[in-house]
Amino acid sequence: MAELLRTHPLTAWNTAFERLPDTVAVAVEPFVAMVDVRLGAGGAAAAAALGVELPVVPNTWVAAGTGRAVWLGPDEWLLTSTTGAPEELEARVRAAVLPLGGSATDVSAQRIGLRLTGARVRDVLAKGCSIDLHPRVFGRGRSAQTTLGQAGVVLLALSDAADDFVVLVRSSFAGYLADWLLDAALEFTPTPHG
Where does the sequence pass through the membrane (predicted)? Predict the structure, then answer.
């Protein structure tokens, strides 16, 4: 039986992303394991069992080992890992939260990440996102479930001082968002002179 190769949905956009200037750099993030965690009561006990501090402040994220824990709702978090296999992460999280009445679902194939960096990235994001992206309001550790263009995304601010973001988008909207970002960045992309 032939083995299926995992292909990133944005492979065809890599060349276009590489042509963008440093002021609006877009890079495709590698696949990461992602688990959606739901908990009723017992969030503190689950955090202790997981060995991960689950953020309790709305619209925030925290580092969690080799990944992140992102607040998605009062009883829902997204846990990511850059080193664990999706099935291993899901099994570990499920074992920790199931005795507490929680659930864990592997959603690794649901979203992909784009890393946006550069001095004009907030300007590009502001073209299609209605939240306040000023560093005082949306700095390191902040997250938002919002729309960018017409795609639903989870936006994470990675830095206070620099413009550094991760955008998590559903795989089925990845091509649309890639095209939207390239179009939104045109204003900040120097044109070649002939």
Answer: none
